[in-house]
Automatic annotation (TrEMBL):
Keywords: Cell membrane, Membrane, Transmembrane, Transmembrane helix, Transport. The chain crosses the membrane at residues 56-76, 88-108, 120-141, 153-173, 193-214, 241-268, 280-302, 309-330. The keyword Lipid biosynthesis does not apply. It is found in: Cell membrane. This is Putative siderophore transport system permease protein YfhA. GO terms for cellular component: plasma membrane. It comes from Martelella mediterranea DSM 17316. Belongs to the binding-protein-dependent transport system permease family. FecCD subfamily. The gene is yfhA_1.
Amino acid sequence: MNAPALRLTVLAALLALCVIGATGLGSSFIGPDRVIAALLGDGARMDTVIVWTLRLPRVALAAAAGMALGLAGAILQRALRNPMAAPSILGITDGAALGVVTFLWLFSDEANVLTVSIQWQPLAAIIGALAFAALVGLLTLADTRRRDPVRVILYGIALSALAKAAVTLMMIIGPVYRASQALQWITGSVSAAHWIDVGVVTLGLAAAVPVLIFMRLPMRQIVLDAQTAATTGFSVDRNRIALMVLSVLLTALAISQVGAIGFVGLIAPHAARLFHGQFAAGYLVATAMIGGMLVLVADTLARTIASPLELPAGAVTALIGAPLFLMLILRSQRSNV
């Protein structure tokens, strides 16, 4: 077994251990042997009900959403040739949050009752994410220095601040149906997981696989500077837009189901570079598995460290991601001195 395959095997084993551990933890602890037996259909009836009905949908959704967010971050960083690029930095995540709060604000009456089905909420998140991604794209296209990837990040940060301000104002002015639940969604939570949600995210990941296989060569070439790429006949702008669209779709898909969990798209690609290597075979697979583990571990900590209270998983990822982002900014500044 070669080195990249060995590293991927190690990550797969770690992810499996995280799944088993997270499934066993809860108000009633289930040991790893009992979890495995229940997963294989050989466990006690009560263990099987707890594992398959109550815990595994949440565990699977956290892992799948983390994979989508990790992939989205890796694609975005490669497309913009900037290690600080991430969906949460570019305003995509906050755009989704604004979409959800706008939905709740528009369809809440004076009695604070939602007048339409809450099942439309994920669609509102997707619309918000796509709208803010389109705004970032339009501002970049209108900029005479649009070939500079840093400009995209600056526009994203500005729009992200705008979305946060709008969300705060709408939450204060109201009425917003289930304001506390909306606030928890904005921070990021996997508490309302169902198997249908797992299926939606898993299908999205499956659909992204052939696209990524098809674009594996452009993803390698896009790291070239514009002049070098032009000599090879490679269209940097066209492929950058295609990769950014794929990143936005993966982000919108994930956060529409688990809320605005931030910084996973920033942390997972960096961890994969350190452990696996950016240009080693299976880099995106490594990033996806690390992203899945990040959200899964964060959600497990969020529901256990303050039990019976449940913290938003996004708060845990932000505690890790925000200092890392500051470190990357400082490192970037030093390298430019």
